[in-house]
Specification:
The chain is an alpha/beta fold. It has helices spanning about 5-15, 20-25, 35-40, 80-85, 90-100, 115-120, 135-145, 165-170, 180-185, 190-200, 220-230, 235-245, 255-265, 285-300, 315-320, 330-340, 340-360; strands at about 45-50, 65, 70, 75, 105, 125-130, 150-155, 250-255, 270-275, 305, 325-330, 375. The strands form three sheets. It has an eight-stranded parallel sheet with strand order 4-11-10-9-8-7-6-5.
């Protein structure tokens, strides 16, 4: 029996069990993958200050994100095609998050639909919205999220135009997989995944197929998605969507201080410092390096969360100590889901929680609200020194 002590243990099992195209979908970035790599490696430049002889009894990682109580300030990020990583993947991930006490965010490009997840869970979840050219579809999608009692709308701002991800193009990524000779050869080695997928509730995009005129199956979907993201998205449109939603709004994809100020102006409840996991603009700064300038720009006027690159509880600790009030995991929970289903997502959360709790204690801190930059050793030029 494999003993799982870190996220990388789950990743190794995940790679063995899931078809190559879906592993590559999760474990890749755009173009040269520089930003994808640096999202994780840049955390290593930040050191922790060990403190001793501090009473460590009564520790807690409990906190809040947008006014919601959380067992630790970590949410499951929206990840497209989660239901292709494991049968009914979104449902299993949402259940694990609910039981652990952290938020789950459902992607527009999920396999299980909004209604599927709502039916299978009792805690309100968050819904992530991609803005589309078809405004009627977007309005209906927002209404469906309202009907499902979603407690926050996460609007993704950095995917007006799809970044090029070489592996997805070469693999012919689709849901369900296109049965080419190479795909069939790979699927034959993933028999456990295939058997479970035969019993899945859905195998195509549940929020789209059957909800868009002219899209009745996955054959039409590829062309539709390629043409559907709205390249005209601007702050006025963001403000209108916020008004239409009428509830808590989180803006995802902020990587520049000026954009953070604009997010503040439109009244966001939180912003997510994110580069889409390195899957959009390659060569952009990692999220953890971008975080300080954004915190300086908006201060405590809006909650600042961080997404992209988190693979350990120490990464979470570093982001929180630097000033973020919440973090998101995408790949880390997907590794667990693909490896072991719902139990794997729970294991990923347990691993991260233990690492966060232990590292906080060794830094002499008992509660999340005690974390500050004084527990970190940050290089003077961590953000970089750039010409004007």
């Amino acid at each position: 029996m494999t003993v799982i002590t870190c996220i990388d243990d789950l990743k190794r099992i995940y790679e063995r069990r899931v078809p190559r195209m879906f592993f590559d979908y999760a474990e890749s970035g755009s173009w040269t993958e520089q930003t994808f790599r640096e999202n994780t490696s840049d955390f290593e430049d930040i050191y922790l200050r060990q403190r001793v002889a501090v009473d460590m009894s009564g520790r807690s990682t409990a906190s809040q994100m947008i006014g919601q109580d959380v067992a630790m300030p970590v949410a499951l990020a929206p990840v497209g095609l989660t239901g292709m990583q494991c049968a009914d993947g979104e449902i299993k991930a949402a259940r694990a998050a609910e039981k652990f006490g952290v938020p789950f965010t459902l992607s527009t490009m999920s396999i299980n639909s909004i209604e599927d997840v709502a039916e299978a869970t009792t805690a309100p979840f968050w819904f992530q919205l991609y803005t589309m050219r078809d405004t009627d579809y977007v309005s209906r999608l927002i209404q469906r999220a309202k009907d499902a009692k979603c407690s926050a709308l996460v609007i993704t701002l950095d995917l007006q135009i799809l970044g090029q991800r070489h592996k997805d193009l070469k693999n012919g990524l689709s849901a369900p997989p296109k049965l080419t000779p190479s795909t069939i050869a790979n699927l034959m080695t993933k028999w456990r995944w295939g058997i479970e997928m035969l019993g899945a509730k859905r195998r195509n995009f549940g929020n789209i197929v059957g909800h868009v005129d002219g899209i009745s199956d996955s054959k039409d979907l590829g062309a539709w998605t390629a043409e559907s993201f709205d390249p005209t998205l601007d702050w006025d449109k963001v403000a209108k969507i916020k008004e239409e939603w009428g509830g808590k709004v989180i803006l995802k994809g902020i990587l520049d201080a000026e954009d953070a100020k604009m997010a503040l102006k439109v009244g966001a409840d939180a912003i997510i410092v994110s580069n889409h996991g390195g899957r959009q603009l390659d060569g952009a700064m990692s999220s953890i390096r971008a975080l300080p300038s954004i915190l300086e720009a908006v201060g405590d006027q809006v909650e600042v969360h961080l997404d992209s690159g988190i693979r350990s509880g120490q990464d979470i600790l570093k982001a929180l100590a630097m000033g973020a009030s919440g973090t998101y995991i995408g790949r880390a929970f997907v590794y667990g889901l693909g490896a072991m289903g719902e139990a794997g997502v729970t294991k990923a959360l347990e691993v991260l929680h233990k690492e966060l709790d232990t590292s906080m204690a060794l830094c002499g801190r008992r509660r999340i609200d005690e974390l500050g930059r004084d527990v970190l050793l940050i290089p003077e030029d961590f953000e970089g020194r750039w010409q004007a």
